[in-house]
Specification:
There is one protein chain. By secondary structure, the chain is α+β, with helices and mostly antiparallel strands. The protein folds into 3 domains: 255 residues, Spore Coat Polysaccharide Biosynthesis Protein SpsA, Chain A (Alpha-Beta Complex); 52 residues, no CATH class; 105 residues, Sandwich (Jelly Rolls), CATH 2.60.120. Helix content is 24%, strand content 31%. It is built from 11 helices and 26 strands. The strands form 6 sheets. Strands 1, 2, 3, 4, 6, 7, 8, 9, 10 and 11 form a 10-stranded mixed β-sheet that branches. Strand 14 and strand 15 form a beta hairpin. The protein is globular, with a radius of gyration of 24 Å.
């Protein structure tokens, strides 16, 4: 059985902890492991392979965290833009044998009861082998209005229901045959594709074309325009709510989608006044209870419990204002190392850059800024225009805007630089890549 892991996510509901380039599944919230790593580990008991569907940025995060787990038998499908879950799952199924049983899981869910989880996976796999599309219905523990529901008669699906209001949610809870829609599925790859072809033929054809045109050198990389040509839809709307071969497994497995700080507060310790505090510094609260406090280097969120779903409105406002706070932490992980913004002003920015051994940045240029590099640790190889030279500790160089340049670490230890950017615009999107080891070059 292959575990298809969906790594999409924009990092809006757990902002400022989660950001677009560091969504919640990669944040180590539970001990020293992330939700993504927990997903891989728990499904490895039943699945001998992992197929990860992600965008390019999240691919590198997944790669790093899988190295920590020493996980093998992992393959990737990289989407240049997201088109929701149905195309993502279809692309993954097209990369597999039609008879392969797949377990489709989000990468950002928490499951506490592992033994019960393994049992429902066994039941689901058997139904999948019999030719059914299987979904996992979570046994509800309260009248949740933020989830869709599945109405069932045993393992037969009667109806899928949209997110209810509070009154209807209570009715669903009391009825006893309604389940939260978990977003997890199990089926044979070929069976799902046949149902997709039957109920969403245009999506099937566009996805099939995009897969056929993809770069398959080492991993499957879908072309940007081909991906945009695929209709955007969820697996529920495209297939599950229309198919006649859907079964549901009742799953009392200690499940949470960790979809808000209120949900996270139920999984992590709270203080004596029922406050959830996530901070790297000492935080003292006076006269405050039933609240959420999230403090990061560049943003502070204080919210009353019960209102954390409204965080997305803050993210929407910041996006309209052009803020980078929704996209990046001050410490940003890149495939070659990290950079940390130490100070930012309207027309200049100071960074601390760490480049790992035998790694290098892309050959690039900037249209709106000049850069000054100072090596504070290690030995850097620098290319500026046609010149290549070494910079040692306490040495510096200047890169004029529009000049092609590249920073490389050809040594066996990290190099650390201080970079000063000065110009009319210092945003992270002012990068034109001519060459790149990580296939991010423009064009």
């Amino acid at each position: 059985m292959t575990n298809i892991i969906l790594c999409g996510g924009s990092g809006t509901r757990l902002w400022p902890l989660s950001r677009q380039l560091m969504p919640k599944q990669f944040i180590k919230l539970f001990g020293d492991q992330s939700l993504f790593q927990l997903t891989v580990e728990r499904n490895s008991d039943m699945c001998n392979n992992q197929l990860i569907v992600s965008n390019v940025e999240q691919y590198f995060l997944a790669l790093d965290q899988l190295e920590e787990l020493k996980q093998e038998s992992v393959e990737y499908i990289l989407e240049p833009v997201g088109r929701n879950t149905a195309p993502a799952i279809a692309l993954a199924c097209m990369a597999l044998d039609v008879d392969e049983v797949v377990l489709v899981t989000p990468s950002d869910h928490l499951i506490r009861n592992h033994d019960a989880y393994i049992e429902v996976l066994k039941e689901a796999k058997q139904l999948a082998l019999e030719g059914y599309l299987v979904t996992f219905g979570i046994t509800p523990t309260f009248a949740e209005t933020g989830f869709g529901y599945i109405e069932a008669n045993g393992v037969d699906v009667e109806h899928f229901h949209e997110k209810p209001d509070a009154k209807r949610a209570k009715e669903y809870l009391n009825a006893g045959n309604y389940y939260w829609n978990s977003g997890m599925f199990c089926f044979r790859a070929g069976v799902f594709l046949e149902e997709l072809k039957k109920y969403s033929p245009n999506m099937f054809e566009k996805t099939q074309y995009a897969f056929s045109q993809a770069n398959k050198d080492g991993m499957v990389r879908i072309k940007h325009d081909d991906m945009l040509g695929i209709p955007e839809d969820s697996i529920d709307y495209a297939v599950m709510e229309r198919s006649k071969i859907v079964k549901v497994i009742s799953s009392d497995i200690g499940w949470s989608d960790v979809g808000s700080f209120d949900a996270l507060a139920k999984e992590l310790p709270n203080d004596k006044n029922n406050n959830l505090i996530l901070a790297t510094k000492q935080v003292e609260l006076l006269g405050i209870k039933d609240s959420i406090v999230v403090d990061t280097r560049d943003a502070l969120l204080v919210a009353k419990k019960g209102h954390s779903q409204d965080v997305k409105e803050i993210v929407q406002r910041l996006n309209k204002e052009g803020s980078e706070l929704t996209k990046l932490h001050s410490l940003v992980h890149r495939p070659w190392g990290t950079y940390e913004v130490l100070y930012a002003h309207e027309n200049y920015k100071i960074k601390r850059i760490v480049v790992h051994p035998q790694k290098r940045l892309s050959l690039q240029k900037h249209l709106h800024r000049n850069e000054h590099w100072i090596v504070v640790e290690g030995e850097a190889t620098v290319q500026v225009g046609e010149s290549t030279f070494l910079l040692k500790e306490n040495e510096s160089t200047y890169i004029k805007q529009t000049m092609l340049h590249r920073l490389s670490n050809n040594t066996q230890r990290d190099i650390i630089l201080i970079e000063a950017q000065v110009g009319s615009y210092t945003g992270e999107d002012d990068i034109i890549r001519a060459e790149d080891d990580y296939r991010r070059a423009d064009g």
